[in-house]
Predict the 3D structure of the following.
Amino acid sequence: MSDNADRADARIAAAVQSALNKVRDTPSLCGDGHCHFCEEAVPDARVFCNADCRDDYQKHQAGRRRAGY
Ligand SMILES: [Zn+2]
C-alpha cells in the first residue's frame, strides 16, 4: 500500500522537476551564437552569456507580460 504511494510521489516529483527544468532552460529560445539580452557573442547552444543576463531577460519578459504586451 505504502509502496504505491511512494511510487506516485516519485512520479509527481519527477514531473515537477522536469517542468522546473524546462522553465529554467527557457525552451522558447534557441541559441544563435548571441546572448538574447545583451547581444554578446556566446558559444553555440547557449542563449545567454551569463546568469545575470538570463535573470534580467526573464525579468524583462515578466515585466512585458505584466504590462500587457
Ligand atoms: Zn548577455
Remarks:
- The chain has two domains: 1-29, 31-69.
- Residues 31-69 form one domain.
- The helical segments are 2-24, 51-67.
